[in-house]
Write a structure and sequence with these properties.
Layout lengths: L5 H12 L3 H12 L5 E11 L9 H11 L8 E6 L3 E9 H16 L10 E11 L10 E5 H8 L14 H6 L2 H21 L3 H15 L7 H10 L6 H8 L23
Parallel strand pairs: 2-5
Antiparallel strand pairs: 1-3, 1-4, 2-3
Amino acid sequence: MSGNTKEEMEGNSEITSRTSLLDVIMSKYNQLKDTKSYSRLFYVAKKTQKEYSEGSNSSTFHLSLFQKAGHKEEDYYGLLFESQEFYVHILEGTRECLMNYLRVLYSAQIEDEFLREIDYKILNVKILMYTDDIGRIHFPRWLCKELQQVNQILGDDDDDALSNSPLTKEEEKIGVSWVIKIYDILNQLLSIGKKIMGLSLKHTDNFMVGELPQSFPELIPKESAIKELFQDCEHCLTISEFLEVYDSPVDLELSGENVWPTQTRLLIK
């Protein structure tokens, strides 16, 4: 009668307990498939509103855009700072939420009858940055602030918190000042979000509504900075250009002069 030794049994147990590469991949997939992945949209826009002196309709207009996109206000996170003519907007959410929002925003720009009940019109939009897989969100919720009110609290000085470091000759030659402006204002807004996220939940709502300008005056973008950002970003994509590139089906060309590597021609002698 044959029997297995203790060493043989332990060896067989070790073999059966080993995990294949496929098992590892599937285990990781099952862990991640229900995990939300967040994206970030950063853009500047020019808009018009007849009675801005009586208060802005930006908040009402954008909340309506969220609904038109098929989502709730709670699905979006970020911060919108506006002046009478321009606004800068950082928006975070799932990729589906942001792409649906961009489609609706484009409709609001090109259709005269879109949300006609709200006295508000988007004239032009420049996409400054779009990023997928940003990790965690950086704002507790979405908020809209009028810079006119903020600047009255802070004072209307022309100095802003943007980088004043002189450009090198190479940077001046290739014209990267607009890239630096984008980076600086983006960092300002993300820094505001980081500071707010560090607060307790009890203080967050009151803080975002009433205490934002006084607490972080050095991080609030100036009206002049937003206007310059819109005017200087000549190379930024419009909404239609962005959607054409990132929201259109891929067109594969399997043969022709644009295909690389070029097809080798066989010479038969």
